[in-house]
From TrEMBL:
Gene3D superfamilies attached to this UniProt entry: 3.30.70.330
An annotated Gene Ontology molecular function: mRNA binding
Pfam family, one: RRM_1
Protein source organism: Ulva partita
One of the record's GO cellular component terms: cytoplasm
Keyword tags: RNA-binding
RRM domain residues: 13-90, 111-191
Signal peptide segment: none
The protein, known as: G-strand telomere binding protein 1
Region (Disordered): 88-108
Domain of life: Eukaryota
InterPro entries hit by this protein: Nucleotide-bd_a/b_plait_sf, RBD_domain_sf, RRM_dom, RRT5_SRSF_SR
Length: 192
């Protein structure tokens, strides 16, 4: 029996992880989950002040690895807290339906970009505004600045658009843009 026959509902590659300790970082999540498979992305969500929201996302190379993580890591402990782990219900690969079959690990969906060179003081809203201010017609699903253990920006992040056309336009308009003395690099995200 193949995996498709045993799973009539598409399984995503992302896990939603909640009940995180305030001090738990994305690196802690990645380290904890790597025994389930190849972690291609991990993030702990933070508010505008840089404080953890107590939840995060872990994305794996395959849906099978994500399913294993949901089964084996739910109830495990990190930084003294018992984690609650489930499939990410917002996983856009699953929500897209047919597109998820053609989106394999290491292939870009064409709708997410990685932005390097973000000014250090920028938060998620300011990252989004880089694109919406210059291209008012663009539609963005989300924008996330990556923060380190010290709650400081790492100077890069991801922006998810609602269409590949918007992502391409963002690359054309904003790659090489200078903001606050930093040069932006905007490229398609090979994992997004």
């Amino acid at each position: 029996m193949t995996g498709e026959e045993s799973q009539p509902v598409p399984q995503g590659r992302r896990c939603f992880v909640s009940n995180l300790a305030w001090r738990t970082s994305w690196q802690d999540l990645k380290d904890h989950f790597k025994s389930s498979g190849n972690v291609v992305f991990a993030n702990v969500m933070q508010d505008t002040s840089g404080r953890s929201k107590g939840w995060g996302i872990v994305e794996f190379e395959t849906a099978e690895q994500a399913a294993d993580a949901c089964a084996t890591k739910n109830g495990s402990r990190v930084d003294g807290r018992i984690l609650m782990v489930r499939e990410d219900r917002e996983d856009r690969d699953v929500k897209r339906g047919n597109n998820s079959a053609s989106h394999r690990a290491g292939e870009s969906s064409g709708m997410q970009v990685v932005v390097h060179g973000i000014p250090w003081s920028f938060d998620d809203q300011q990252l989004m505004a880089i694109f919406t201010d210059r291209i008012p017609s663009t539609q963005i699903e989300s924008a996330e600045v990556v923060y380190g253990r010290d709650s400081r920006s790492r100077g890069y992040g991801t922006v998810k658009f609602l269409s590949s056309e918007d992502a391409q336009l963002a690359i054309q308009e904003c790659d090489g843009l200078e903001l606050q003395g930093r040069l932006l690099s905007v490229k398609l995200d090979q994992w997004g």
